[in-house]
């Protein structure tokens, strides 16, 4: 597949993310860039909830499930708007048409530069991302397509017999499955294009909504927000090259929408584009969307949003104090601090989050180094973004003069603090702060662009405004004497100063996880030779058969690559006794009756041997001594082979 061939798939991914939610936002009274930018959050929430509901109702997953669900929601919203039109202003005052035009034109360089980053980083549209985490994400989509069950409540065990179901946020996998169902594309290609659309379309749109709430009806702000949003290393590009954290990426694209709703509710929005009546349900939708994409984004939204709520409460308190109502003046801030403190204390001690809080990543630098990296947007030993970081610092300084930016700076400081703790300390006693993000500095570093983007945009606007007020530009054209024109010029200069928004560094960070990069055998899940072998044996394995395997030799990818189920569908050995016993004793099937009992229980009729050496030093790959090449041992029939790669039918149990 060429990148030109992949354009229709990219358009389908964009359509699935934006179009389902757009009728809902429009009927709710939103207009312009706000309606478009909020739509993906609605889509993600409805898709995730409809997947859970469909499973509960016994309805198989298909493209019609989210479409019918969003249609029902649109009807309810439309009826509500119709009934309330005489009591409330149902439709928000539309922004000037120029604002929408500026936003859309601002997306053009984003699409160009972002596409270059994706092409250089991924290599080919269908290129495999070869990391530990992608195994689950690929196979989760394969499981959804095979089973017709896309519920987040059961996704965690991938439907393997005897394991029941467990929660895993499935909105990402649901959306990728919809792209596959709509186009017939392979799972790797659909995953790559969905991630790309999130980075270069949905994330910039979400940032535009947040900037619109912070700065107001500014054509200049909308024109430059897009390019600013993709300049940071840690997000969106950082999460596309680490993990790989696709579900987290989906959730983070929703976060600015939730914070934009908080600005409406706290009274901090400038020329509020949402309105309080819409902000309440939108906040709920954002939390649902984030929770079903990846729950740690819920904590990111809450942490940054806290400062907006507190700032709003403090402003009201100051007003009450000046009016002489001093007793009431202290109530609001105290309630906010106590409420958020209680939520934090509960989350820091709740047993449901205990496994997440116990995740451990060794500290890798000193606190001073971590602070320096955060200020230079060079977290996790990345290239320092000097020009961009200088503009961020200008935005921080401006908060002294412009009240609208003060909560933004506080949220930015929180993100820096959390990153520094995870990167340089990370002890059991710090998990109460960073444990909600698995104590992972990469996830925490991804929070900074949420507040960094408004700070950069504000700095560019301030510089353009001051320059036009300078009054010494008589020879410049009319366009350059306007704030909008000069802001665009400054944004263009930023692109030049950052060598194309650091596109080379961003592409390299993505490239490191893909098969097209120069990878050692130790970091390769599936080689081209192995992939060709899987394709060859596909028709020799019945579609409903279960295959025994050692997942560490590359065969773990068979469910997503060729649609054949394996008992090792993750790189972690499940605790089910049947799986464990087969993993350790299958090779003795002819002389161990217990092997056949478990094989019949699980429907295991085949054994596949791969050639992968992924993480060869990891001791977990040795937990499968029963899945070694049986050679001439009785109970197995060799069906196909290519060097060390082999496919056997298990003849001893009558299951093959």
UniProtKB/TrEMBL annotation:
Positions of transmembrane segments: 6-28, 35-55, 61-84, 96-119, 193-211, 218-239, 299-318, 330-347, 383-399, 404-424, 444-464, 476-497
Superkingdom classification of source: Bacteria
UniProt keyword Metal-binding present: no
InterPro entries to which the protein is assigned, alphabetical: DUF6541
Pfam short name (any one): DUF6541
Keywords: Membrane, Transmembrane, Transmembrane helix
UniProt name for this protein: Putative membrane protein
């Amino acid at each position: 597949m060429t990148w030109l061939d992949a354009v229709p798939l990219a358009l389908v991914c964009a359509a699935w993310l934006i179009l389902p939610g757009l009728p809902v936002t429009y009927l709710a009274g939103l207009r312009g860039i706000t309606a478009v930018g909020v739509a993906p959050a609605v889509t993600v929430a409805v898709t995730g909830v409809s997947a859970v509901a469909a499973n509960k109702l016994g309805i198989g997953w298909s493209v019609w499930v989210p479409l019918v669900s969003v249609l029902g929601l649109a009807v309810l919203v439309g009826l509500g708007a119709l009934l309330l039109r005489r009591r409330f202003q149902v439709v928000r005052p539309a922004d000037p048409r120029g604002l929408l035009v500026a936003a859309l034109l601002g997306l053009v360089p984003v699409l160009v530069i972002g596409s270059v980053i994706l092409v250089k980083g991924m290599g080919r549209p269908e290129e495999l991302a070869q990391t530990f985490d992608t195994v689950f994400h690929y196979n989760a989509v394969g499981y959804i397509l095979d089973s017709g069950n896309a519920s987040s409540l059961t996704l965690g065990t991938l439907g393997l017999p005897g394991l029941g179901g467990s929660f895993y946020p499935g909105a990402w996998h649901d959306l990728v499955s919809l792209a596959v169902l709509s186009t017939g594309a392979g799972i790797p290609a659909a995953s790559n294009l969905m991630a790309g659309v999130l980075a270069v379309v949905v994330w910039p749109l979400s940032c535009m909504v947040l900037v619109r709430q912070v700065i107001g009806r500014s054509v200049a702000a909308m024109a430059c927000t897009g390019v600013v949003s993709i300049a940071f290393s840690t997000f969106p590009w950082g999460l596309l090259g680490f993990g790989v954290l696709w579900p987290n990426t989906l959730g983070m694209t929703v976060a600015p929408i939730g914070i934009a709703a908080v600005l409406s509710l706290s009274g901090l929005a400038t020329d509020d584009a949402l309105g309080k009546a819409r902000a309440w349900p939108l906040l709920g939708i954002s939390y649902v969307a984030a929770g079903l994409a990846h729950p740690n984004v819920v904590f990111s939204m809450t942490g940054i949003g806290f400062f907006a709520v507190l700032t709003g409460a403090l402003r009201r308190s100051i007003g009450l104090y000046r009016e002489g109502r001093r007793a009431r003046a202290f109530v609001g801030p105290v309630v906010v601090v106590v409420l958020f403190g209680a939520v934090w204390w509960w989350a820091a001690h709740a047993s449901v989050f205990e496994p997440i809080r116990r995740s451990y990543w060794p500290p890798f630098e000193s606190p001073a180094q971590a602070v320096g990296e955060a200020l230079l947007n060079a977290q996790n030993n990345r290239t320092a973004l000097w020009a961009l970081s200088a503009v961020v610092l200008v935005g921080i300084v401006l908060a002294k003069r412009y009240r609208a930016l003060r909560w933004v700076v506080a949220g930015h400081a929180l993100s820096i603090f959390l990153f520094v703790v995870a990167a340089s300390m990370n002890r059991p006693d710090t998990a109460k702060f960073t444990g909600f993000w698995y104590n992972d500095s990469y996830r925490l570093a991804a929070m900074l662009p949420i507040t960094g983007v408004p700070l950069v945009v504000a700095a560019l606007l301030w510089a353009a405004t001051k320059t036009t007020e300078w009054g010494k530009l008589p020879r410049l054209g009319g366009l350059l004497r306007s704030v909008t024109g000069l802001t665009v010029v400054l944004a263009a200069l930023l692109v030049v100063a950052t060598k194309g928004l650091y596109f080379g560094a961003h592409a390299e960070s993505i490239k490191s996880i893909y098969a097209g990069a120069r990878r050692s055998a130790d970091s390769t899940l599936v080689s081209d030779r192995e992939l060709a072998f899987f394709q060859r044996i596909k028709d020799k394995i019945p579609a409903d058969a279960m295959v025994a395997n050692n997942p560490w030799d590359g065969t773990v990818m068979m469910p997503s690559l060729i649609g054949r189920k394996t008992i090792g569908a993750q790189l972690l050995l499940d605790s089910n006794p049947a799986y464990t016993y087969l993993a350790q004793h299958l090779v003795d099937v002819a002389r161990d009756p217990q092997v056949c009992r478990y094989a019949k229980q699980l429907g295991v009729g085949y054994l596949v041997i791969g050639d992968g050496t992924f993480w060869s030093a990891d001791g977990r790959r040795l937990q499968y001594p029963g899945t070694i090449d049986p050679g001439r041992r009785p109970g197995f029939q060799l069906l196909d082979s290519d060097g060390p790669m082999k496919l056997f039918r298990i003849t001893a149990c009558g299951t093959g």
